[in-house]
Amino acid sequence: ALESSLSNASPREVRQCASVQQQQAALVAESDRQVSSVQALFADARGQLGQMISSAQAQLQTDAESHLATLQQGHTTALGEVETTFTARREQAQGIGDNYADESLQAANSSAEQAQSRLGNIAAAARSVGQEKAQVGGVLQRSPKPKLR
To answer: How wide is the angle at C-alpha 114 spanned by C-alphas 108 and 118, nearest 5°?
Structure first.
């Protein structure tokens, strides 16, 4: 269509049209060059961003492992301290229990000895009364008890 309209055109119009076509071709070439340049910049930026993300992920992984190791060490230390404290408190409680058990046994032995002594005294008094009764023919004279008002 352009060639048929140019067949009736003057040489000047043909030159102008050719110039316009050259300018259009130059604009298209420049546009293609700029698109390629922008695409290259985006590809480079995408590569840099990928490297930054990979680096950040690696750093996060390293930090996480470091923090995990610190937490595990703290956990181990805390468990050791808890075990030491528990053992000390258990031994203290056992010592207190042993002391009270010993004191309870001593108190029980003392009470038993006192009861045995009293029973021995009562038995001796009963034997004495029995012997006195046996000597006087089975009747023992005692003084009458005073009456309470």
So the answer is: 145
pTM attached to this predicted model? 0.41
Q: Which residues contact residue 132 at a Cβ distance below 8 angstroms, ignoring those fewer than 6 apart? A: 140
3-state helix, strand, coil in the chain (%, to 5): 85, 0, 15
The upper half-sphere exposure of residue 90, i.e. CA atoms within 13 Å in the direction of its Cβ, equals: 6
Q: Residue 148 gets which letter from DSSP?
A: P
Reported as a single tens digit per residue, the pLDDT across 10-63 is 888 888 888 899 999 999 999 999 999 999 999 999 999 999 999 999 999 999
- In the structure encoding, which two tokens stand for residue 41, read together? 């910049």
* 8 Å CB contact between 140 and 132: yes
Residues whose CB falls within 8 Å of the CB of residue 13, separated by 6 or more in sequence, listed in order: 6
Q: How far apart are CA 7 and CA 97, in angstroms?
A: 124
Indicate the SS3 state at residue 8: coil
Q: How far apart are CA 11 and CA 5, in angstroms?
A: 13
Contact of 17 with 1, CB cutoff 8 Å: no
CA gap 33, 75 in Å, rounded: 62
| Rounded-to-integer distance, Cα 54 and Cα 35, Å | 28
